[in-house]
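FAQ: What does a ligand-bound record look like?

Like this one, built around adenosine-5'-triphosphate:
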Amino acid sequence: MIAVENISKNFGVTKAVQDISFKVEKGDVLGFLGPNGAGKSTTMRILTCYISADSGTASVAGFNIHENPVEVRRKIGYLPENNPLYMDMGLLEYVKFIAQMRNIPKAAVRSRVEQVIGMCGLESELSKDVGELSKGFRQRLGLAQALVHDPEVLILDEPTIGLDPHQIIEIRNLIKAIGREKTIILSSHILPEVSATCDRVLIINKGKLVGSGTPQELASMSHGGQVIMAGIRGPQQEVLAGLKGIDKLTDIKHLGEADGIHRFELRSDSVEELSEEVFFMVARSGWSLTELYRKSINLEDVFLDLTTREAQ
Ligand SMILES: Nc1ncnc2c1ncn2[C@@H]1O[C@H](COP(=O)(O)OP(=O)(O)OP(=O)(O)O)[C@@H](O)[C@H]1O
Ligand SMILES: [Mg+2]
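The answer part, i.e. the structure of the complex:
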């Protein structure tokens, strides 16, 4: 349904998007996950034909973004970042206006508008102007305008930003329900968000794709390794040399010293239990251990790992 090939975009010296390629199958919900400035919104703006890519190409529902931008836009419902709305229009008036802009036949406008207002839970707000809506309801209205022409593809830039926890759950459920029929790309920098709603996740950092997979696959990427936290009382250089002597430790980070105790974060790609080796090395050397435990790794760690490794 969506195919993106080697898209790049620079703003002056900023490499906002660098050679990104991916595919989204019909009916899939794909999440863009990445820290601020990663290039999520830029990629979405390229796909929705609001800005053009410097190089690379993409197609949406069979239409190319360079050759058929008008058709591409017709196929897409887009909730942009910052959700720009016409503040002094009435809510109903606004949705009707968008429906007309989207070329919905006159006779069908009323029923379609009622339908999306129901889907997005806006019934209680009908008497208000757009500018009078609370942030959460503005976000719902943004979703309603994206859905009104019943598009095949939805591109939602941070759909749950600014919502309260109840609304977040409602909007997530709404996205999941819509996702059964439609193809969706949504962005977020919140991990539980994408794992709750998406079939597949792309992790983007500094304009590059640094990881992809199902939420489960991403979590299991870390299952092969381990992180051990150790507090050791002993002379720093010798302790460090002792730790380096443990073959399977791939990364040794000195976190600091307090009262003669050095704290280390030890990483290994091995699944073998390494806490014991650390314990025996310390005991053999006549130092003492003040703490030794294995940190559990979750999706959050994978995300942090992938998005900081690139930055170094
Ligand atoms: N119109 C523009 N002019 C200049 N630089 C831009 C423009 N739009 C985006 N950028 C830059 O491109 C990079 C990517 O921005 P983008 O908005 O795509 O990030 P994002 O992943 O959506 O971040 P956030 O989570 O903060 O929304 C940033 O460094 C940003 O400053
Ligand atoms: Mg953004």
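Follow-up question: can I read anything off the structure? Yes, for example: The chain has eleven helices and 14 strands.
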